[in-house]
Amino acid sequence: MSELAVGDTAPDFTLPSDTDGDITLSSFRGRHVILYFYPRDNTPGCTTQACDFRDRAEVLAGKDAVVLGVSKDSLASHGKFRGKYDLNFPLLSDADLAVHTAYGAYGEKVMYGKKTMGVKRTTVVIDPEGTIAFIKRNVRSKGSADRAIAQLG
Question: In a 3-state reduction of DSSP, which class is residue 53?
Answer without folding.
Answer: helix
